[in-house]
Specification:
The chain has helices at about 15-25, 45-50, 60-65, 70, 80, 90-100, 105-110, 115-125, 135-140, 145-155, 160-170, 175-200, 205-215, 225-240, 240-255, 260-265, 270-280, 315-320, 355-370, and strands spanning about 5-10, 30-35, 35-40, 55-60, 135, 290-295, 295-300, 305, 310-315, 375, 400. It is of the alpha+beta class. Helix 11 (about 160-170) runs antiparallel to helix 12 (about 175-200), helix 12 (about 175-200) packs across helix 13 and helix 15 (about 240-255) crosses helix 16. It starts with 6 loop residues before the first strand and ends in a 7-residue tail after the last strand.
Length: about 400
């Protein structure tokens, strides 16, 4: 079939729903331009699952993307493909890196965090002024996950704001190459300082554990310094920004569609159902750069992703594909199947998924117990999207926290 004109993705993403619809209309996969890099955006969920589990698709750009060396110096999203951690690893190297991190996010350790998370949310809600309008992205969605991941990683409380700023910029796709380079340097400076602090004063935290693993192993299987630093980068960014967005999207959806809240209160669905439908309907990450074809891959429509070409996982477009879910654009927490790709698929499935689910469900439950009559202070259509092709949230979530009516 003739090659379609390349679809240029808008780096400020003002109307992501329209862009995702355009991707689906162009077939299972289509060529796009993402900040000057050509890639195959895959929006068909069946094809995306196939590619995400195929040994013929790699996340290691150094090994399997011929354009890597010439792209990284000038691409604003270079950090997404140049880090050295399990996010960009392939095969046995990925297994090695994932195996070192997995124990810190085990189901047992995650479940044990429930009381701490409840206490954190309660403290945050205690500080919110009933009867006033509050930005709940800034005053709930942000402070909870940064406190949780900060504690897990051993980041001092007085340094978490600095980490927040640079991590936010990692997800921004409207910054220049120079701005992103400066942000990366600042981020690595913070990580290096954290490593040095934890090496001299270790504690019961993820950073100390990974440093000990690196320093104690002498058989060549341990983390290199670059892998250690980039693994910490992955943990704080994946464990923070994405959870912020899910809390944001769940709150804005529930306050825009009171029927969904009524379903929870009537017992027709649970807070976990709300979380899963939010992850399906508005996943925290819209597009995730990048993967690479190791061989020529023939697509269902006859097109071919050639060996060495880049692949963009378009999770948000895939989650709402009409072949996967009936009336896919409608949020419905009672739908029988809320299957989604918000946490990825296959060997790169997000290790922090149980923690994110726990944080979001706890935040929603306690928020609406405390403020059952909360209202959006503006129309849903007036909320501004984050200027990002990756991060899926709003710049602010203004909510009027009406005090509980007493008789």
């Amino acid at each position: 079939m003739p090659e379609q004109q390349i679809l240029v993705l808008d780096p400020t993403a003002p109307d992501p729903d329209a862009e995702h619809q355009a991707l689906r209309e162009r077939g299972p996969a289509t060529l796009v331009d993402i900040l000057g890099v050509r890639a195959w955006a895959v929006s068909d969920p069946a094809l995306l699952k196939q590619l995400l589990t195929s040994k013929d698709v790699s996340k290691d750009g150094r090994a399997h993307w011929p354009a890597f060396a010439q792209t990284v110096p000038t691409w604003p999203l270079a950090l997404w493909v140049a880090v050295k951690n399990m996010f960009t690893a392939y095969g046995a190297n990925h297994s090695r890196l994932r195996r070192m991190v997995a124990p810190t996010l085990s189901a047992r350790r995650t479940a044990a965090l429930q009381p701490d998370i409840e206490a954190l949310v309660t403290g945050i809600l205690d500080d919110l002024p009933a009867g006033e309008t509050v930005d709940l992205r800034e005053h709930l969605a942000y402070p909870l996950p940064i406190a949780v991941i900060g504690k897990l990683m051993g980041v001092p409380a007085d340094r978490r704001t600095e980490f927040r700023t640079v991590v936010d910029n990692v997800f921004a796709t409207h910054l220049t190459t120079e701005e992103q380079a400066a942000n990366t340097a600042a981020l690595y400076g913070l990580l290096d300082a954290l490593i040095e602090t934890k090496r001299s004063e270790p504690g019961e935290d993820m950073t100390s554990l990974l440093i000990a693993t690196r320093d104690d192993e002498g058989d060549g299987s341990a983390l290199s310094h670059a892998e250690l630093r980039d693994t910490l980068l992955l943990m704080i960014s994946a464990g923070y920004e994405t959870t912020v967005n899910v809390i944001d999207q769940a709150i804005t959806t529930l306050l825009s569609d009171p029927q969904q809240l009524a379903y929870v209160r009537d017992g027709r669905c649970t807070w976990q159902d709300i979380v899963e439908e939010t992850l399906r309907h508005e996943p925290a990450v819209k597009h995730l750069p990048l993967r690479y074809a190791r061989i020529d891959i023939t697509l269902p429509d006859g097109q071919t992703i050639k060996a060495g070409e880049a692949i963009l996982a378009s999770y948000a477009a895939a989650n709402r594909h009409p072949d996967w879910h009936e009336d896919a654009d409608r949020f419905d927490a009672t739908r029988p199947s809320k299957e989604h790709l918000a946490f990825g698929h296959g060997v790169h499935f997000c290790l922090g998924a149980p923690l994110a689910r726990l944080e979001v469900a706890t935040a929603l439950r306690l928020l609406f117990e405390r403020f059952p009559d909360a209202q959006l202070a503006t129309g849903h259509e007036e909320l501004r999207r984050l200027p990002s092709l990756i991060s899926n949230g709003h710049t602010t979530v203004p909510v009027r926290l009406r005090p509980t009516t007493t008789s």
